[in-house]
Amino acid sequence: MLYCDEADCTFRSGSMLWRVMFRLFMETSPKNSLFTALSKPVVLIVLFFLITPIAIGTSLLAINTFQKTEDHQNQRVLGVNNLSASQNSGAQVYASLPNTIKSISASISSADSRVEIIKQYMVDNESPLTPYADYIVAMADKYGIDYRLIVAIAKKESGICKIIPPDGHNCWGWGIHSAGTLGFDSYETSIETVTKGLKEEYYDKGYVTPDEIMQKYIPHSPEGIWAIDVQHFMDQMQ
């Protein structure tokens, strides 16, 4: 059995065809004649120019076909290897990409999350201050204090506005004096007044943590329970 690749077999078949035609010519030509002596070189030349281009062309075509087949097989192997590597790495491989890619983000901004945190906390405490959650965060940002502090102090002083003087809107015991407790026209006014006061009278003077604020806000709190509770309430709003 003959073993050869496609290109080599094609080239050999072309050579065999040339030899067969030449042998037929020799066997059918008159022997030892002048015609034979003169015509054989001419016929050989004609056969050479007829058969050689055919053999060469056939060989080149076979080589080109063989090369394309080999390239195609290499591409398939490469594609399988790439797919295997991508699966091992946890990536996803697609035949084509869509024209448009829609992305949906479930994240919310830091400001929005803070509003939701204190709003939910006040809902759980059934506070009338719940509708002002966004305003509390806005004032905290405006004056640069912890957004949880206003709610935590209100929780300690009045259960977040559930136990306060009527129509006073003062949930923080702010401005308590011998004549009574300071009152405000609205929750917005009281929120901004207390927030601004904490910034100017406490933060700016070095009283920042509940322990430090207690030293001025309510210095006689037994065993520091005021600061302990305020810090605990702030921790619940994480």
Keywords, separated by commas or semicolons:
about 240 residues, Lysozyme, 2 domains
Task: Provide a compact summary of the structure.
The protein is mainly alpha-helical and 238 residues long. 63% of the residues lie in helices and 0% in strands.
List low-pLDDT spans.
77-108
Supply the number of helical segments. Answer: 8
The CATH top-level class label of the largest domain: Mainly Alpha
Summarize the biggest pleated sheet: none
Radius of gyration: 48 Å
Beta fraction: under 5%
Provide mean pLDDT, rounded.
75
Order of helices and strands: HHHHHHHH
State the distance separating the first and last CA atoms: 83 Å
Helix content: 55-70%
What is the CATH third-level topology name of the largest domain?
Answer: Lysozyme
Number of strands: 0
User: Globular, elongated, flat, extended or rod-shaped: what is the shape?
Assistant: rod-shaped
Q: Which architecture of the largest domain does the CATH hierarchy give at level 2?
A: Orthogonal Bundle
Number of domains: 2
* Computed structural class: mainly alpha
Written account of the structure:
- It is a single chain.
- This protein folds into two domains: 6-88; 110-236, Lysozyme (Orthogonal Bundle), CATH 1.10.530.
- It is rod-shaped.
- The model is unreliable at 77-108 (pLDDT under 50).
- Helix 3 packs across helix 4.
- It has 238 residues and is mainly α.
- It contains eight helices and no strands.
- It starts with 5 loop residues before the first helix and ends with a helix.
